[in-house]
Amino acid sequence: MPTKLSRRDFVRLCAGSAAAISMTGFLGPYMSEAVAAGAPPVIWIQGASCTGCSISLLNTVHPDIKKVLTEVISLRYHPNIMAAAGDLALQEMYKVAEENAGNFFLVVEGAVPTGANGAYCTVGEENGHHITFEKLVTDIGKKSTAILSFGTCSAFGGIPATPPNPTECKPVSKVVKDVPVINVPGCPPHPDWMVGTIAHVLLYGIPELDNFGRPTMFFDKIIHDNCQRRQYFDNGIFAKNFGEMGCMLELGCKGPIAHCDATTRLFNGGVNWCVKCGSVCIGCTEPQFPGWPMYERMAEMPVGPATSVTVDQVGGVLGAAAVLGIGGHLAGNIATGRIGPKRNEEEKEGDN
Questions:
Q1: Residues forming beta bridges with residue 126, ordered by sequence position
Q2: Which of the 8 DSSP states describes residue 254?
Q3: CA distance linking residue 248 with residue 282, whole number of Å
Q4: I want to staple 113 with a disulfide (CB 3.0 to 4.6 A). Which of 121, 122, 274, 284 is the partner?
Q5: What digits encode the pLDDT tens for the residues 199-255?
Q6: Which residue from 133, 123, 139, 152 is spatially nearest to 254, judged by alpha carbons?
Q7: DSSP 11-76
């Protein structure tokens, strides 16, 4: 049996791991020991989602997902990968929740449709009546130790809850009350974020969370700080079209306000991430996603989540101060006209 890993070492591992480290592989023995010792089981359910979060989890490579599901995590219900279906599966889930009331964790993937009394998402039947996902989340969630909202749809509403939102989708935290909710956003989240969060709750309980309920061990960093294109930003070189060299702030990159460690952790077994493969960061871990111009420079680039300070105001007021990864570099670029309204006016004059 492995020596028990201290919580401090666990958090340090999660916060500092890079592409070369398979966190799932490293944590596997500790989690297996916890499961063998009777750690709380996990129930995973899905609502208004594309199943991308589950697909991301299935991309766990070291160890492979089979070992993770059968030996590392006591996963008792998952609609995509379990053999049972229909009433048999639903009855088993309710049984697990009842037998382990107050001592299991519920993972929710997807937003919760509440329009038409939840009729837009039904998951089964009971006594001849439909069981809505809203009812399922409420029934199972209120019995759980805590709810893990995996993916931006579950955590913040995401795409299903974006206006006009005809199905009246809501994040889990707006539906289930009086139960701790841990938000692990991303479209989709990295497998390490999901496995690491499950590991923490099994081994140590609820992790430290930020103001939006996200585990700080994964979401306390700003994308912009460690972006591979940061040198272009520092030197005032900005791409005007995709495929060009330069910082992609003017193309709509949300890196300065996006919180996660994708720049160092990388996806697909440590191969790539959004900006490295030529895309902008679309800020999918933020509560505002996707309710902003995806491929346009935002007229208001917030200093931090849920604020309305513009990039130009940052330049005029804060000067060289470092503000959540934007800092004086951005202020200087605005002041010299390398980005922002002044640059746009000069470009129009040039066109004329």
A1: 129
A2: -
A3: 11
A4: 121
A5: 888 888 899 999 999 999 999 999 998 899 999 988 889 999 999 999 999 899 999
A6: 152
A7: HHHHHH--TT--HHHHHHHHHHHHHHTTPPPEEEEE-BS-SHHHHHHHT-TTTTHHHIIIIIS-EE
Q: Report the largest interatomic distance among the alpha carbons of the chain, rounded to a whole angstrom.
A: 74
Partners of 122 in the β-ladder:
132
Per residue in 75-93, pLDDT (tens digit) is: 777 777 776 777 778 888 8
CATH number of 7-218: 3.40.50.700
Tell how many helices (H) and how many strands (E) occur in the chain. Answer: 14, 9
Lowest-pLDDT range of 45-59, 65-79, 212-226, 324-338: 324-338
Whole-angstrom distance, CA of residue 86 vs CA of residue 282: 37
C-beta atoms surrounding 264 within 10 Å: 16
3-state secondary structure of 196: helix
The boundaries of every CATH 3.40.50.700 domain in the chain are 7-218
Helix (H, G, I), strand (E, B) or coil at 112: strand
Q: Which among 12, 60, 28 is positioned nearest to 267, based on CA atoms?
A: 60
Fold of the 223-351 domain? Cytochrome-c3 Hydrogenase; Chain A, domain 2 (4.10.480)
Write the CB contacts of 118 (distance below 8 Å, at least 6 apart in sequence): 112, 132, 133, 134, 135
Question: What is the three-class DSSP state of 139?
Answer: helix
